[in-house]
Amino acid sequence: MKNRLYLIFAALFLAAGAVFAFAMTGHGLVGALCAGIALIILYYHFVRKRALRIAMAVVLALGLGVFCVIEAPIVRDARTTAAEDAEYLVVLGAGLHGDTPSLSLTDRLDAAFEWLSAHPDCVAVVSGGQGPGETMTEGEAMEVWLEARGIDPGRIIVEDRATSTWENLEFSFALIRERGGEPDGNTAIVTSEYHLHRAIAMAARLGVECSGVAGRTSWPTLALNYFIREAFAVTYYRLTGEI
Questions:
Q1: d(Cα 55, Cα 64) in Å, to the nearest integer?
Q2: SS3 97
Q3: How far apart (Å, rounded) are the C-alpha atoms in residues 48 and 236?
Q4: Quick one: pLDDT at residue 2?
Q5: How many CB atoms lie within 10 A of CB 95?
Q6: How far apart are the C-alpha atoms of 27 and 224, rounded to whole Å?
Q7: Where does residue 26 fall: left (phi above 0), alpha (psi -120 to 50 degrees), or beta otherwise?
């Protein structure tokens, strides 16, 4: 019976992994996590040598420990910390479907709209260039979205060249300065909650102290996927010196 339970649980996790990976957009890492759990179950089912079991447990514990150390600041910063008197709001772009904001971008725009509605003196810089499959720039699409919901066009500055988070921030800060403002200490970044730690750290590397406004990811499973992915992204950018 015990052996059968091992196989049933492994099969369930493998099936869940296949569904996440192949049937649900943006859930590849959740699918990989489920598949990994299934393989661990099968390992402990078929491998009987105590030394090998202990070795695997040590590897898993070390890997989990390293992941938690990297993930902790990402989770810590996944919240709104913006000061009520922030003068500028830099809204980071995400993908478009043609000219329609993706789910991730809509989550960010919802957060930006709420903040701008509650802080009528705050000016938004909407930042993002045009990527594959997009019929306009992300900056322009965000401007249209916010204006359609009643935000005064005079409060929106469009940055339409950026192709990365670094460029989003660098070009947006430049536009603020071109208009006589100073972003350092006066700017809040709007992005997905899992992305705030990296964005704020990159801003600091550019010499600008920023706070954050969290765009909450609509689907919990999608948020889990992106939090896992962000740990790898943060590791990469720390190794390259960008944060």
A1: 14
A2: strand
A3: 37
A4: 62
A5: 16
A6: 9
A7: left
Say if strands 100-101 and 96-97 run parallel, antiparallel, or are unpaired.
Answer: antiparallel
Residue with tokens 């709209």: 113
Are 183 and 208 in contact, with CB atoms under 8 Å apart? yes
Cα 66 to Cα 71, 80, 235, distances in angstroms: 9, 26, 11
Name the 3-class secondary structure at 242: coil
Terminal Cα-to-Cα distance of the chain (whole angstroms): 51
Closest to 87 (Cα-Cα) out of 216, 192, 201, 184: 184
| Domain 88-218 CATH superfamily | HUPs (3.40.50.620)
Two tokens, residue 142: 């965000």
The answer to whether 199 touches 73, Cβ cutoff 8 Å, is no
Tokens of 74: 């990402």
H or E stretch covering 101: strand 100-101
Angle, helices 50-76/196-205, rounded to nearest 10 degrees = 60
If one counts every other C-beta atom within 10 angstroms of the C-beta of residue 176, the result is 23
**pLDDT of the chain, 243 residues: tens digit per residue:** 667 888 899 999 999 999 999 999 899 999 999 999 999 999 998 998 999 999 999 999 999 999 999 999 999 999 999 999 999 999 999 999 999 999 999 999 999 999 999 999 999 999 999 999 999 999 999 999 999 999 999 999 999 999 999 999 999 999 999 999 999 999 999 999 999 999 999 999 999 999 999 999 999 999 999 999 999 999 999 999 888
Please give the model's pTM, rounded to 2 decimal places.
0.92
- Indicate the pairing of strand 123-127 with strand 100-101: unpaired
